[in-house]
Design goal:
The chain has helices at about 40-65, 65-80, 85-95, 100-115, 120-125, 125-140, 185-195, 230-245, 270-280, 300-315, 355, 360-375, 390-405, 415-420, 420-425, 435-440, 460-480, 500-505, 520-525, 530-545, 545-555, 560-565; strands spanning about 5, 5-10, 15-20, 155-160, 175-180, 200, 215-220, 225, 265, 285-290, 320-325, 380-385, 410, 430-435, 490, 510-515. It is an alpha/beta fold and about 575 residues long. The structure holds phosphoenolpyruvate (PEP) and magnesium ion (MG). It is found in: Cytoplasm.
Length: about 575
């Protein structure tokens, strides 16, 4: 039996067989020629057969997929038979280039051409690059890149997942996610929580598990073991029963003694919003607008944006929807806003800062938001990501006012904003703590790096102290005005951890926003403590010498977690 310890990022106990995510396809060497004895005619026939096989495989997957995933797969399947692509590869083969190199180069030039055409065509540019990699894999006889297709359920093991992988991840067959890289705030973690899949990240060595091996995954404990024991199988069966009873949130976030903490959802688009409303979310605490445009090379028009935003607002009539302006950069690059050559993207021009280098995009986005809000019944609040100073907050508020938006706010995810929360909040109406980035910047630990996962947890007492300082700053600002303190919510992944949700409540945050799948677990656990008990647990966590002890001490006082397998 082989065991692996990683970081648990999405609870659940499950057994299943492993499929490894294939490594990306490497570029065939430049100048690679046809092998001795292979005629250009034969090579063209081989290439066409490979392209046909790629087409058929993608088409078959599209036929069983639904929604966005289906559309992506259909478009990519068509590209595999694109005559321009195959003709230009054929020309290169006739001039003596190997089939692999020929399709690689032909793919690059077709992709560039589509890119230059702009608009809808430009969106197809990445499909061509995907297709050429698949054809090269087929020619080499190695597995196609991306999430493996399978009729039978499996546990996906990968180095890490990118936001774009969500489109082709079929939650009906992927049982759990295990990665050797990634941290607790990585996109693998975010994707897993949003799909309700048990997940373990930063589990060093799991890339060595053979395809088809049977494993047990505990997404709360961060544990993976090959060849599950009878006891582990029993735990997995018990979890299946618990998760069924936890499936519903009654739409009322409160402590045992009636202190209200509305539980909101993090969404990336209309589909998530509709699902979140169905799961009882009391509103949206974070609408990640960049997720609507991740694959785009060009700025979406105001009309297009307004339609995307309204579709989310319409899922929550009469309820609060906190929209975040584009947070492009670092882990979420948007080609039309971010410079891919920056040496330190996490410390670079990202989030609100893209307004320094690409002025106008933010104003147009605010125009689209204002229009969508005026046509919907949602209570729309708007916040900017990566605000570092009160001056930035003030400028964002005036841009919002100019667009007719009444409730501007900021994300507090840079330590400087937490440390100066009183002056930052003087400029805007609310703050939302982005604990994913706040942790990354407080601990100077890239949220995407597996080896830094132990540093990169919001259980770090230093991060909890920054949360406390933000709440205190809001109270101080409120007392200066003789009004109530401005709301400070949490929308980072910390809010989805039921034990941490209790601590955050004890620290005084006013709302918790999370993937809708976590609402039931957080709602259930929150109802087992009074506000005073939550405050006591917050003090305990703050006094801990390490993140591990903070988590262990708090969990030991919340036996309900173990009972529910959370
Ligand atoms: C909610 C956050 O934003 P994102 O994960 O999108 O960076 C955060 O940083 O905590
Ligand atoms: Mg962030």
């Amino acid at each position: 039996m082989q065991n692996f310890q990683g970081v648990g990022v999405s609870p659940g106990r499950i057994t299943g067989s492993v499929r490894q995510m294939p490594k990306p396809v490497g570029e065939p060497p430049s100048g690679e020629k046809l092998a001795e004895g292979i005629s250009p005619e034969d090579a063209v026939v081989r290439l066409k057969a490979a392209a046909q096989a790629v087409h058929d495989e993608l088409k078959a997957r599209a036929d069983t997929a639904s929604g966005d995933g289906k559309a992506v797969l259909e478009a990519t399947a068509l590209m595999a038979k694109d005559t321009m692509l195959l003709k230009s590869a054929g020309k290169l083969i006739n001039a003596g280039t190997s089939a692999e190199r020929a399709i690689w180069e032909a793919g690059a030039s077709v992709s560039e051409m589509l890119h230059n055409l702009g608009g809808y065509m430009a969106e197809r540019a990445t499909d061509v690059l995907d297709v050429r990699a698949r054809i090269v894999a087929e020619l080499r006889g190695v597995p196609a890149p991306g999430i493996p297709s399978s009729e039978t359920p499996f546990i996906l093991v990968a180095e890490d997942l990118a936001p774009a992988d969500t489109a082709t991840l079929n939650p009906a067959v992927v049982l759990a996610l295990v990665t050797s890289g990634g941290g607790p705030q990585s996109h693998t973690a975010i994707i897993a929580r949003s799909l309700g899949l048990p997940a373990v990240v930063a589990a060093h060595g799991v890339d060595g598990i053979a395809d088809g091996s049977e494993v047990y995954v505990d997404g709360a404990a961060g544990f993976v073991s090959v060849e599950p024991t009878d006891e582990q199988r029993a735990l997995a069966t018990a979890w299946a029963e618990t998760s069924a009873t936890l499936a519903a949130f009654d739409g009322n976030g409160t402590t045992a003694d009636g202190h209200l903490v509305p539980l909101l959802a993090n969404v990336g688009g209309a589909k998530d919003a509709v699902a979140a409303a169905g799961l009882g979310a009391q509103g949206v605490g974070l609408f990640r607008t960049e997720f609507c445009f991740l694959e785009r090379d060009t700025e979406p028009s105001v009309d297009e944006q307004a339609a995307a935003y309204k579709a989310v607002f319409d899922a929550f009539p009469g309820k609060k929807v906190v929209l975040r302006t584009l947070d492009a950069g670092a882990d979420k690059p948007l080609p039309f806003l971010t410079d891919a050559t920056e040496p330190n993207p996490a410390l670079g021009v990202r989030g609100y800062r893209t307004d320094f280098t690409t002025p106008g995009v933010l104003e147009r986005q605010l125009e689209a938001i204002a229009r969508a809000a005026s046509e919907s019944e949602a209570d729309v609040w708007v916040m900017a990501p990566m605000i570092s100073t009160a001056a930035e907050a003030g400028r964002f508020a005036s841009l919002c006012a100019a667009a007719g938006i009444q409730t501007p706010g900021v994300m507090v995810e840079v330590p400087s904003a937490a440390l100066t929360a009183a002056t930052v909040l003087r400029e805007v109406g609310f703050a939302s703590l982005g604990t994913n980035d706040l942790t990354q910047y407080a601990m100077a630990a890239d949220r995407q790096l597996g080896p830094l996962a132990d540093l990169n947890t919001p259980w770090q007492p230093a991060v909890l102290r920054l949360v406390q300082l933000t709440v205190e700053g809001a109270a101080q600002e409120g007392s200066g005005r003789e009004g109530a303190a401005k709301p400070v919510g949490v929308c980072g992944e910390a809010a989805a951890d039921p034990a941490l949700a209790v601590v955050l409540t004890g620290l005084g945050v006013t709302t918790l926003s999370m993937t809708a799948r976590s609402l039931a677990a957080v709602g259930t656990v929150l109802k087992t403590v009074t506000l005073e008990q939550a405050q006591e647990l917050a003090r305990l966590a703050l006094s801990a010498p390490s993140a591990t002890e903070a988590r262990d001490w708090v969990r030991a006082k919340l036996p309900v977690l173990e009972e529910l397998g959370l």
